[in-house]
Amino acid sequence: MSTCSMPLDAGSRRHDGITTAVAVFKRLSGVLLLFVALCAAPPAFAQHTDLPEPVKQALARAKLPESSVAVYVHEIGAHRPAVAHGDERVLNPASTMKLVTTYAALELLGPAYLWHTEAYGGGPLVNGVLNGDLILKGFGDPKMTIEDFWMLLRNLRARGVRDIRGDLVLDRSFFSREEHDSGRFDDQPTRPYNTAPDALLVNFKAVTAQFVPDPEGRTVRVVVDPLLPQIKVANDIRLVTGPCGNWLAQLKIDVQGSANAAQLSFAGNYALECGEQARSFSVLGHREYIAGLFSALWQEMGGTLGGVVRDGEVPPGARLIAAQRSDTLAEIVRDINKFSNNVMARQLFLTLGAVAEGAPATADKSSRTIKQWLAAKGLVFPELVLENGSGLSRIERITAKHLGQLLLAAYASPVMPELIASLPLTAVDGTMRKRLAKALVAGQAHMKTGSLSNVRSIAGYVLDGRGRRVVVVFIVNHPNAGNAQPVQDALLQWVYLR
């Protein structure tokens, strides 16, 4: 008999008498309600102590030993995980560590949290002349773009500031100014993802070189934005015909300089079929970058600066003139997780420590804040190592089991909708946009991805084919980790189809 067949017993046989008929009707009604409830609920996942067979096969093809992999699969509401393979191994999770930072921030700061960047006058403002310093104080805004900085300066002009007789003072004291070697992680000091966090970070301290082919002139223009006075550009690129291919590999790029000045040199071939392409670089120091950008924008607005640009703090008695608000934390978290933005994640990580324990922010304060928050939720992760909260680290560590338990707790949190909406959706957007486009799980999984040399990871939620929400974590630490994407995809498809 089918498990959903209607049960029959003596009460369903023919009886005489009205009283007996009513009793039978009540009994059958109760049985029918139970029958409907049991058949309407989708069956729970069966527990697997071993890896699913499709995942095993994909691992073998990828030449990844099962001992290098940690997998944790747990249906929301289930008492036990469906798959728990190597889930207690302490591993480097790469950018899936951002889930720890962003979930903590959503609960501790709230989705509507805002950062402010403030402009103070250090003297009287008379007829457009500020007789003193202009002080800009930052509070760690993770995403202050050129447009936001321009809006702050425009607000100053609208409030009557035109000529600054003193200095431009940058108050960056909300974060500690620790020594930072931008090349230490991967010997790529000019890549924007290696930019050091800063309380007054503007535009990720980046400049973007746009390569614009000119078929009539047979040249390739290099347009640098913003073009700061401390940056020089040398262009010796040749425009050629033929397929585009790997356009970046055909160029010879040399970046030289220091915190005070830099030169970007470009040579090699560039195919006309490539159209316009772009590459961003992080050059100059934080102070020098803001100095150049302020000078360019302030002059465009008709303003003048009589003094120099220097670091300092807001003095007693300074008057607040204008302020620029950031996007909300919910919007910031979406950018961090959808596009795995390391710089923004590090800014958010430090903000947590500064808000909880007071400025200046330090990594130790932030790590302590997150661990105390976890413990208060009953989540004790003794192996957890947090260096900068972004996953761009060789020493950050967590287990797949605990990352999975974090996601289970997040699903029961009031900020669950904001966190899930921030994760890349398979075959739709973010770092999952080009994956699983033709699979049934396309559009059904919100997955944070992670990638470092020797590390690949995913963590998030799958809405399976029966409407069950399932937590999925996959981490591999191995020299062949670069082969792991088909294995991850096999796991997601297996979870969806079960």
Describe what you observe in this structure:
Helices cover 29% and strands 24% of the residues. It is α+β, with helices and mostly antiparallel strands and 498 residues long. It folds into three domains: 31 residues; 229 residues, DD-peptidase/beta-lactamase superfamily (Beta-lactamase), CATH 3.40.710.10; 212 residues, D-tyrosyl-trna(Tyr) Deacylase, Chain: A, CATH 3.50.80.20.
Beta-strand percentage range: 15-25%
Largest sheet: 5 strands, antiparallel
Annotated CATH architecture of the largest domain: 3-Layer(aba) Sandwich
CA-based gyration radius:
29 Å
Give a short synopsis of this structure.
The chain is of the alpha+beta class. The protein folds into three domains: 10-40; 53-112 and 329-497, DD-peptidase/beta-lactamase superfamily (Beta-lactamase, 3-Layer(aba) Sandwich); 115-326, D-Ala-D-Ala carboxypeptidase C, peptidase S13 (D-tyrosyl-trna(Tyr) Deacylase, Chain: A, 3-Layer(bba) Sandwich), CATH 3.50.80. Helix content is 29%, strand content 24%.
Helix and strand arrangement:
Elements: H1 18-40, H2 53-62, E1 69-75, E2 83-85, E3 90-91, H3 98-108, E4 116-121, E5 125-126, E6 129-130, E7 134-137, H4 146-158, E8 163-164, E9 168-171, E10 206-214, E11 219-225, E12 231-240, E13 251-257, E14 262-271, E15 277-282, H5 286-300, E16 304-305, E17 309-311, E18 319-325, H6 329-339, H7 342-357, H8 363-376, E19 398-399, H9 400-411, H10 416-421, E20 445-452, E21 455-463, E22 469-477, H11 485-497
